[in-house]
Amino acid sequence: MITPHLKEAINALGLLTNRKTEWIWIDQICINQDDKKERAIQVDMMKHIYSLSLGTIIWLGTNVPNVETILSLVDRMSILYEQDLNPNGTRRRSRYTWDEYLSIGLPSAKDPAWIAFGQILSRPWFIRSWVIQEAALSKVPPQMICGTQELSWEKFVPAASWLLSMCYQFTPLNISLKSPTIPALRSLKLFNELVQSTLPWDLTTLLNKSIRFKASEPRDKVYSLLALTKEADTGKLPLSLQANYERPVEQVFRDVTRHIVTSTRSLAVLSLIRYVPDWDRYSSWVVDFTAQAQWDRLSYFNWDQNDHTARCLVETLNHSSAGRPAVVAKDLPDHILGLEGLEIDTVNAVHGAMSKPELVSFKSRDIWFAWKEACQRLEERYPTTEAIARAFMVTLTANWSLNDHERMSDQPLSHFWQYLSQVYHQFRDSGSKDELDADRETTKYQFSPHLNSDRDANLFSLHLDAAYERRLFFTKDLSYIGLGPRIMEKNDILCVLFGGATPFVLRRVGKYYRLVGECYVFDLMSGEAIGGWKKGKFSVKMTIQCAGLFLTPDLPQTLDQSITIPTRRALVRLAGADMAFPEYEAVHGILLDYIPEWKVETLCGRGAIPTTQEAWTSIMQKAVDATFEFNQRGIILQDCSPFNVIVHAWMFEPFFIDFATVLFKDKMVRELVESGDAAKEDWDGQYE
């Protein structure tokens, strides 16, 4: 089918292409869009097709008024790009302030070049998923054509990248024009990074960078990128990535998410869940690649200099799991992702979602209410008002990077005090004078005696991207302050999952968990939880050692017609285990359900913990037998190795442990009880 837009392009190309051009490949014509099998075959061949072409022609549509005026604007911004940004697009300096922006010599707000520029950026070409590989695989810089005007790709792309990174908020594109230019600018920033680097790219990186692109066919959000990935470089894509338009979208996205987590042993792809999820359609851990990001990323990524197999973004500043790779459970139902991690604390207070307009104009009352609560809740954790203020400042910005060398934590508190002062006065002037004057006393609130000009407040407000549409929260027992997704609620669980750069918020649903989203938590971003777990500094109340975290929607009552899911758990207790004990640290476990025929809980009730070696040995053997039954039935595991159920006495939660070739009862008896009759007599189950 030839659409009116395509007809315009064909007519224009007939006039603009040179006589050496014999063939022009147009996907919409050359691929039978109605034949799903043919489309799938052609999609897997796209890299080969584009590699044979001489170049790429970009048709942006018919002329816009004054299109020629943007040439000088683009020239100026491309020069500023060379001055202010590194070749890979990262900033050499912090974003421009208003005064700095006025001094760099860009056209005035009324200049028609801005209108023409905005109209071009509003053209749909810039946000189509398929154009990414078309531009990236072009042997020469693409020809950009708008009507009869040709635009320089080499200048247009870096100019747009500079504008987005350095000063977009001060330009007429943001202030006075209503055209939707941000998506196109983000796209052009990706094109700039593709131009500056070599292929292949890591799939997670591409999905991250292209999350705001659009595709009329949802599966193409993934399939349109595959030609640029290292998976495609191997010659044959894994089955989970091969184009198949007959498979449901939900299965495609589920298998892609699982492939990435399993193959990379990283949870970076879960950071793409920055939207209100549809849990009725997708499991909570499955990324909906068609969903538009509704809040910004928390992590600051940079290019991995050690991965020579693919261009890959890595988290360079946040390391909540201390580099510990993700542990993914095998042989689970497809809709369940089994992960391991530490349960840290329960969310006890959640403040309102913060909007960008309110934050940049100092009108967010949630900031003031959260600050008031921080002064009360964080007193025991942080001894001074200044320490509380720094924790609050860094959390509210997610320790945002000003440039490649400076983060918000490196800045003086004057930035925060000035911003909070502006919030205070905005709130006070709105009719809340008496309430706020009382708050200043009860919260020990004080303005710094060294407040500077409004520049400090403006600088702080320019780096609140992470706070947009997120909520500040506090935890119950350990008084952490954090910044979490807008859908989080009181009583959600704060966790550090292995393989994650940031902590995560989970929600209990029966015996499983749902993934709510990533979060920033002051004092948990550099591996503190992992270090405390290894050293035994954390009580069992704040961390579940080796607990399997199943992130899943409500589990149906049956996996299939023949296997019934157990509803109770075996209660075999291991009393008083030392979290710092080296052998205990090395254990990996997963929650295990109860087999109705076994009533192990009758052997050791809460008030009757066994105290002899023989009693423990008997219980351990019964646990081995019970788990063997689980394996035989194929309910959780598909093999028949004797896995082993134990329950920590303080947690009263069961989990099983695989000691590989060593039988559970023999291993545990050796670790818990010294051999010999004398040791038997003195053995105490409460402390072993």
Topology:
Blueprint: H1 4-16, H2 27-30, H3 36-51, E1 57-59, H4 70-84, H5 98-102, H6 112-121, H7 131-136, E2 143-146, E3 149-151, H8 153-166, H9 172-175, H10 182-196, H11 203-209, H12 220-223, H13 230-233, H14 249-264, E4 301-303, E5 313-315, E6 337-350, H15 356-360, H16 365-377, H17 385-397, H18 414-442, H19 454-461, E7 470-475, E8 481-485, E9 493-497, E10 504-509, E11 512-518, E12 520-521, H20 528-535, E13 547-551, E14 573-574, H21 582-585, E15 589-590, H22 613-633, E16 644-648, E17 654-657, H23 664-672, H24 677-682
Parallel strand pairs: 1-2, 14-16
Antiparallel strand pairs: 2-3, 4-5, 6-7, 6-9, 6-13, 7-8, 8-12, 9-10, 10-11, 15-17, 16-17
For the biggest sheet, the summary is: 8 strands, antiparallel
Intertermini distance: 74 Å
Look at the structure and give the mean pLDDT.
Answer: 76
What's the total helix number? 24
User: Which consecutive residue ranges, at least 5 long each, have pLDDT under 50?
Assistant: 538-610, 630-688
Tell me the helix content.
Answer: 25-40%
From the helix content, strand content and strand pairing, which structural class follows?
A: alpha+beta
Shape: globular
Rounded to an integer in angstroms, the radius of gyration calculated over CA atoms is: 29 Å
Roughly what fraction of the amino acids lie in strands? 5-15%
Q: Please tell me the total number of domains.
A: 3
Q: What's the count of strands? A: 17
Organism: Fusarium austroafricanum
Protein name: Heterokaryon incompatibility protein
Domain Heterokaryon incompatibility: 6-134
Pfam families: HET (PF06985), Het-6_barrel (PF26639)
